[in-house]
Amino acid sequence: MAVLRPRRRQADSDEALIRALYEEHGRALLAYATRLTGNRVAAEDIVQETLVRAWKHPEVLVNGKGSIRAWLFTVTRNLVTDSVRARNARPTEVAENPAHQPIEGDHSEAVVDNMVILAALDKLSGPHREVLVELYFHGRTVTETAKALGIPPGTVKSRSYHALRALRDIFGGPQVALKGVAG
Amino acid sequence: MTARDEHKIEALGAYVLGALDEDEARELDEHVADCAECRAQLAELTGMREALGELPPEAFLEGPPEGGDLLLQRTLRRVRTESSSTFLNRRVVGVAAAVVAVALALGGGVLLGRGNGGGQATALPTPSTAPPSSATVVPGTRVVSVTQDGTRLTATITPAAGWIRVNASVTGIPQGQRCKIVVVSKSGEQEVAGSWVVSAKAAAAGTNLDGSALIDPSQVASIMVQNFDGHTFVSANL
């Protein structure tokens, strides 16, 4: 390891970071940005910018608080807001360039609240999250979910109960966690 | 509280999510009318369902975008261009630590951060305290994360001299399954990188294990989790 040239090592780390974020969050971010902008091409630019910002601010990914996903969603959301604002700006005004907006830009309270819930969701255990996704997001019944996941209906019920309880416990906790990430 | 009541309370989660069948929902309606504890629970759980309703629906999606990795390649190109042109030398350790943190959040985080459902338990290292050794990522290290039919595999493949180290986090496999991590080479050769049996705890919180496989780092094609009957739970291409 010690003989490796730093630049090469840096390039590989950079690439591994971007890949890992893309593999885990790419689909969610692109779908989110596409819905907000109504434009797939613009959405891709925004997701690219979001990932690049994460790479430029590795400290937000390692600060031990909150959720990476909530941070990424917040950045995406702000970039969309900025680009809409730039588009709506009068020609005589200087258009804001999203590429140079600090991430510490404005967060409306509503967005921050959403992101607290998102961070809570992100902290659920895999099995808890998975049952919620089936029941809530896909709107499946207990019976359908049990079949899809290969677990007994009783387990689906108890997991969905404990998942909602866990969400409440996390969500009810101190909200500074997410603000630390967003800022 | 009787075991039967406990049962009823646990059904309240599915109830507020509208996932019970009609008969069961009606039965629970009647029970809740008579049970103050269940009514209190119901109010809380309804509050959480409403909170979920404020989330962007995309928050429930996992994995990479559908339809290829053009966007990934574009982003990587931009990062390469920017890092070769500018200011970035001083942040080597920062990014390396972030890669480790992201890998932990993807894999270990499922166990450590999400696993206990206990608030701010995310076990990410901080840049200021992470020693350089743990913050260094071996060049060519690859991280994959896939979810198939409820099983999630997040694996870090680290090249060694002619072989690979594997760290895998696996969630969503039922208790009692006897599992193995199998690495497949480009020529179809298979190597087992580790095996285990899913405990009750692991069925709930997932399993993390380290292994290795004698496959050249450049020849790794995919990694999968199978049981000993040959059923493949999840498979990820590299």
Q: How is this structure best described in words?
A:
The complex is a heterodimer of chains A (183) and B (238). Chain A has 183 residues and is mainly alpha-helical. Chain A has nine helices and no strands. Chain A starts with 5 loop residues before the first helix and ends with a helix. By secondary structure, chain B is of the alpha+beta class. Chain B contains seven helices and eight strands, in the order ααααααβββββαβββ. The longest helix of chain B is centred in the middle third of the chain and has 20 residues. The interface between A and B is large, with 96 and 97 residues.
Q: What layout of secondary structure does this protein have?
A:
The complex is a heterodimer of chains A (183) and B (238).
Chain A: H1 6-37, H2 40-56, H3 58-61, H4 68-88, H5 109-122, H6 126-137, H7 142-149, H8 153-171, H9 176-182
Helix pairs in contact in A: 1-2, 1-4, 2-4, 4-5, 5-8, 5-9, 6-8, 7-8
Chain B: H1 3-16, H2 22-34, H3 36-53, H4 70-85, H5 92-111, H6 132-135, E1 142-148, E2 151-159, E3 164-171, E4 178-185, E5 190-197, H7 200-205, E6 207-213, E7 220-227, E8 232-237
Antiparallel strand pairs in B: 1-2, 2-3, 3-6, 4-5, 4-7, 7-8
Characterize this entry briefly.
The complex is a heterodimer of chains A (183) and B (238). Chain A has 183 residues and is mainly α.
Essential attributes:
A: 183 residues, mainly alpha, 73% helix, disordered N terminus, disordered C terminus, B: 238 residues, alpha+beta, four-stranded antiparallel β-sheet
Average pLDDT reading of chain A: 78
Described by its quaternary structure, the protein is: heterodimer
Instruction: Identify the overall geometry of chain B.
Output: extended
Can you count the helices of chain B? 7
